[in-house]
Design a protein that fits this description.
The chain is α/β, with parallel strands linked by helices. The chain is 26% helix and 26% strand. The protein is built from eleven helices and 18 strands. The chain has a nine-stranded mixed sheet with strand order 11-10-9-8-14-6-15-18-17. A five-stranded mixed sheet has the order 2-1-3-4-5, sandwiched between helices. It has a two-stranded antiparallel ribbon with strand order 7-16. It is globular.
Length: 367
Amino acid sequence: MGSEEERGFMQLALDEARRGRTSPNPRVGAVIVQDGKVVALGYHAAAGQAHAEVAAVRNAGRPVGGATLYVTLEPCNHQGRTGPCTEAIIDAGIARVVIGCRDPAPRGPGGVERLQSSGIEVELGLLEDQAAALVADFAKHITTGLPFVTLKAAVTLDGKIASRSGESKWITGQAARAETHRMRADTDAILVGIGTVLADNPRLTVRHVEGIDPVRVVLDADLRTPPGAAILDPKRESSAPTWIFHAEDADSSRKGALSRPEVELIAIPRHERGVNLGEVLKALGTRDVVRLMVEGGAHVHGSFLDSGLADRAAIFIAPRIMGDAEAISFAAGGAVESVDGSSRLVRTEIRTFGTDWLVSGDFERTA
């Protein structure tokens, strides 16, 4: 659908959309074209701020009557923190709107119908797959209340994330590590297990690129997190809070040592492998965590795979071979009897970062 030129305009809108940090809202980008030329770009920067369409109209700095608007997501037709984008588009005199994908939110009459009823020409579905992928996290959250979960790791060619002693620094090179920090800046929360906290003492902050630190989440059924752990940020180097999910029957005497204003202890039903992941995700969803990145380790990755709660994987692969059967693998899940029983990624992408590769894709869902 669409000419090469129009696809280029929508690609510009998609690129604009990725600039926003919008949770719990979707990322949206817009481009206004008059007489075949781009006159304005716009994107939704953050919840409560102007939506992409309104930002583009403002950025034009001139009348845009008769122009074409390319927007990645169906314009909203409801009153939220800001007014309906449909009315702003109508008031601006835009003659044609080209939309990437429909709004997945279960709302009333949509933006397409409102624009058409006002006499605006509407075309839907330009670069639809890319536009839908851009808001897949929002779509899951708005329809299920759960965050979109990405499993992230750095592994050797033989799938190891650490040596048998637990040492893992550094499997990948600097370029791959910088991309990891860009990914952190693009997520709402990062989750690790207590094993990672005890073995690596991570900070889970954004350091190699500019960006906002995500919420730090720890699965710690028995409250074994050391009071001086870096994830608790004892030096207060970050404004991001830390949320520790523990079992309801955890030793209450441990709570005092971890209690501080920037740390929240959240009780969750115990599961045979720690805490109940489904309940953790529900709690995160109610706290407006739309994008969750899971950085392991093996036990946590295995639990997400076994429970079918992961949506995407982003695995950095280094040209190294550990060659040790006792080294720690990416996931320590339950037994898989055949290749057909393994988790499969679809819509995959491979990118290079220095000498490393990033393989990413969505987990295949079976009926």
